[in-house]
Amino acid sequence: MTGEGKMSIQIPQESRIERVATRASDPFRSPITAVASSHYRPPTPPTSDSMLYPPTLTSRRRAMLHEYAAEFFGVMILVIFGNGVNCQAVLSSNPNASSSPKGDYGSVTIAWGVGLAFGGWISGGGHINPAITIALATWRRFPWYKVPGFIISQVLGGLIGAAIVYANYFHAIDVYEGGRGARTLQTAGLFGTYGADYMTNVSCFFSEFIGCAMLMLGVLSVLDPRNKVPACCVPFALFFFLAGITAALGWETSFAVNPARDLGPRLLTSMVGYGGQVYSYRNHYWIWCPIIATILGAQVATIVYDIFLYKDGTESVICTKLYGNNYEVDPEADAISRRRRMTESKSQSPV
Question: Among residues 228, 254, 232, which one has the least CA distance to residue 242?
Fold first, then answer.
């Protein structure tokens, strides 16, 4: 009681540490007030080169050039190994060129797989396939403005790769064809893809559709953060994917499963003496089977994977529409996905 007859209540004094902790943890206070009332120590500023030296116009353009160069060299390596083994296995079967065959379908299977793995390594994880590029742009938020440059780089890589192989084997082709400069579809098939004689165009379309769909499913599975596939193992996985497709589905149509792997070498053959027959074959077979069928196969495979198997809604257009934010998040997989998107975003600007 005080002298005026009023009661006073003694409130215990809380320690300064407790008061600061209470204020800082109060969810109804603004973050600025909470930080100001506590002994806040700002984090150590990042010291990476990207923060110390912000990207310039030149560095952005160089990064984009690197992406296109990676696609070019990736497809070039793939075609050098693939067309090279085709030429060696077939041309060496002619006794006028070789005393014994120097390859068979087994060596073709292995070499194409090695070519894809090597191309994946040298491109640093590039697409190396227009069908994959278009599918990722359609359903996985890959920038559309990069798609034309990627496809042009991939086709040019296929063209140059085929030119290198042709320069290495054109004498053997002369021997196999029976005369200098003689060129028929029999040896054009060493570079581009052509269906077996008993196959209808519809059957060839279906074969290419299934082959590219299987390849796309494999690519999506190794890129899925939840599967936690180490980056160093991705080329090995690509080797087994293409080797399996070649061994199981490749014989009837020569397994294009990649528009650039067919169109680039086909352009080369039309320039070196094979003429327009490489385009007019079976009512423009080259458009429907190696290009349209593979693109549709990759599209359907991505839709199926994203609906039934993939749950990272932050990357997939389909998952975002179906699940929104109501999907189970694997923290480790989400961190991997975020790091990959941050890395890709460094070269998103077209300038």
Answer: 254
